Amino acid sequence: MYHGARLGVALALAGAFAACKSDRPSTDSAGAPAGSSEAAAAAPATVTMTAKDYSFDAPAQIPAGSVTLQLKNEGKEVHQAQLVRLEGGKTAQDLMAAMKQHGPPPDWMKFVGGPNAAAPGHEVSATSVLEPGNYAWLCFIPSPDGVMHAAKGMVRPFEVTAAPAGAATALPETDVTVTLVDYDFQFSKPLSAGKHRIMIENAGPQAHEIVMVKLAPGTTIKDFATWAESMKGPPPAEPVGGVGVLEQGMRATFSADLAAGDYGLICFVPDVKDGKMHLVHGMMKDIKVS
Q1: What is the value of pTM for the model shown?
Q2: Shortest CA distance to 77 belongs to which of 174, 145, 131?
């Protein structure tokens, strides 16, 4: 999640996202490699991680395949677990060296989702299909002092190992699909109160994220966007989940148990053309859950 000019890295990321293209194998409608209908019936593995101010407690290795990532926030600030895949044989040492450099991140860093925006004391989850290789969780959310949590040490490299026999290789079934486009959130059907597993598809052409918040009475998502610029005073909304940055063509799911009421969706990713956040281009939306 990105918060405007307060994150110097946000504008730098705009250049990197411009060159991002999906290099995934062809997939079926569930997000699994074509021909994997039997594996689609298997349940995703579950991995639990804990966010603190400012670190992740998480396994150093997790198996490949469909994986539900549960993020428990034990800190006093909002946290996320942005997933980054390190390609080209790059390692945790390469990642840490790259983070010390100015300018856009290298093209071997691929943004592949992850649980987005957990409020203090709350838990969120998101499911992705992970290939073997080197990865990292990062938190791009800034503190009230304007310093990004990753710059305070909230980076956790890990390895995705070969999938065990019988592992799920497809995303689980969902009841609602939200398609991310420039610059909108398009629903397959309205959300109702209750438990949902929501498919997030990035139709691009740019990278996008989805942050879902429960709005305080009488407020709108624009009020939340304004608050996010300064983070002063009580927030007019509480995050309830979402999916971190996905490059074009990528998919992930997240689960949410929604009470009836007013909610908002927002994307803080910087635009590749002008560096302004997508919310400035209209990628924020008020929705009602009934």
Answers
A1: 0.83
A2: 145
